[in-house]
Amino acid sequence: MVNPNSIDIVGQLVAEHQALIELLPPDEISLRISADAIFRKTLLLSAASYFEVRLTEAVTTVFLEVTDSDALVEFVRTKAVARRYHDWFDWDRRNANKFFGAFGSNFRSFMDERIQASDQLRESIRAFMEIGSIRNQLVHRDFASFPLEKTVSEIFELYQTALGFVDAFPDRLREYLNS
Q1: CA angle 64, 103, 130 (to 5 degrees)
Q2: Whole-angstrom distance between the N-terminal and C-terminal Cα of the chain?
Q3: Rounded to two decimals, what is the model's pTM?
Q4: In 3-state terms, what secondary structure has residue 73?
Q5: Fewer CB within 10 Å of terminal CB in the chain, N or C?
């Protein structure tokens, strides 16, 4: 499932989980099921949290690149970024239009064009939004009893696909700002 040559922090969690499961005796089926159920939730939260850190850092970094005012950067960091991430997206609609629109209608149109031109970008946004949507359900609908239907492999695949959007967003924002 995990390619050890390309492991990031979330991939490392998956590799460690695989190693843990392999240590459990094969006849401990209920223990394996329990460990897997807990890990699937942990993996999903880890992926969503990682994306939050990456995108909030990206927005702050790009803003810092276009202004030399520490005061403005700090204002953006404290009033638009810190503890605001989950307001950036409409997780129920599972699209990033609200996020893109927060940068203005011209940027949203710019991103619409990029998304229409790239199946890969469209799919990575879909995966990103699915992770965020499930994360919201998980934390707001009783974490312990929430029925997470996806397997570890499916969650990790969503994560890897969603990375395409998280990796591309800062460059698309810079491209727009430089156009």
Answers
A1: 105
A2: 40
A3: 0.90
A4: helix
A5: C
